[in-house]
Each structure stands twice: as C-alpha cells, then as structure tokens.
Automatic annotation (TrEMBL):
This is Uncharacterized protein. It comes from the Bacteria.
Length: 211
C-alpha cells in the first residue's frame, strides 16, 4: 500500500468516525440517552432516607403501652436507632399540653448522636444510601403527546454508599422500607417516564419538589 493509499484510508476512517459521532444525538431514543437521563434523575432524587424530619423525638408512657406490639412503630424504631448508636435517650419529666395540661408526664427523649451527623441531610433526615442506575432493561415508545414525546423506561437500580447500619437486622425489622429497597437492588424492575426536551431526554419530576 502506497503512502497516498494509507492517507486516503485514514481520511475515510476519520470521516466515518465523525459521521457516526454526529449521528449520535441526545434526542435519539436510545439506551445510552435514557441511561443518562435516569442517572441524572437518580443523582438528584435517589437519596434513601428515613421519614422522620423532626428531632428530638419524645416517647411517652402511653406511646410505649400502645405500640409495644408494633414492630415498625415509632417506639421500636427509636430503640433500634439507639441500638446502632445513631440516637441517645434520656428519661425526663415534662408538663403536658392540651388534654394533659397541668399534668406532669414521664417521657423518653431521643436526640441524634454525633455518630448520626455524617448521615444527616436535608430537612434533618437520616439518609442511608443513594439509588443509582444499574442498567436500562427496556422501553415503551416514544409516543407523541401533543407537542412533545414521552417514553416509559424500565430499569434496574443499585444502591451506592449504603450505610453499614442499614443492613442490621434490628434496623430492617423496624424500617421495612430499608429492607425492601436493599432486597430490590439489581433485581426489581422499576419504571419511569422520560420526556423529550430541546436538550434531549429528561426524567419527569427532575425539577419538581417530589421524589
């Protein structure tokens, strides 16, 4: 092969690569583009946290009496969090309010410990992991809805940066949502709707307040 033939072949190869790259639009209905959109959504909305947003938590004697047989009740949950060192309790007496006004009540007050600080995120919630995209499984569509397009994508998720305490039996028994999320990682198919924007595919709800 002459030097001119080699140059010509290199030029054709380079042009082919450029052509293929140019055809790879972010607006294409492709596994790659859907994966990018889902990853962006999960990075922003995929934080896994406990529901409690208000600390300290006060547990009364009545709470203990009424919830003693509720494994996922607040009494059991606080005890479980204390057992893994995330909260600490203190017995104290407080003045009742409302129907209990004028009555001295004995309570157990739970406050967050120093060990909880690395897991404390927005709205004073304890967070234990982050959903991330494992892989895109399939999709339905896109379909045209008026002036825009939507596609329903099915995917598998994984959990990144999972806290060690989230795998403790006492935590999973009292916070069933944690066990459910961990059990579903890599196996449970989840769906989400994406919409086509002028910049490419975007997960619905990305810029809303709900998760």
């Amino acid at each position: 092969m002459t030097i001119f033939s080699k140059i010509a072949l290199s030029t054709v190869t380079a042009l082919s690569v450029i052509s293929l790259t140019a055809c790879d639009s972010p607006k294409d209905a492709s596994e790659k583009n859907f994966g990018v959109a889902l990853s962006q959504y999960l990075e922003k909305k995929g934080q896994l946290c406990l529901n409690n947003k208000k600390w300290p938590v006060d547990i009364s004697e009545m709470d203990i009496s009424m919830q003693k047989n509720l494994p996922s009740g607040r009494v059991s949950q606080m005890a479980a969090l204390e057992s893994v060192g995330l909260v600490k309790s203190e017995d104290m007496s407080v003045q009742g309010t409302g129907f209990n006004q004028g009555v001295t009540l004995k309570i157990k007050r739970y406050t967050l410990s120093d060990a909880a600080k690395p897991y404390l995120h927005e709205e004073s919630r304890l967070c234990w992991g982050q959903r991330a995209l494992e892989k895109v499984v399939k999709w339905e569509g896109p379909i045209v809805l008026g002036d825009y397009q939507e596609v329903k994508v099915t995917y598998l998720y994984k959990i990144d940066n999972a806290a060690d305490w989230a795998s403790k039996p006492e935590i999973q028994n009292t916070f069933p949502a944690i066990k459910n999320a961990i059990d579903g990682a890599g196996t449970r198919e989840t769906t989400h709707v994406l919409k086509l924007t002028n910049n490419g595919w975007e997960a619905k709800g990305l810029n809303s307040d709900w998760k």
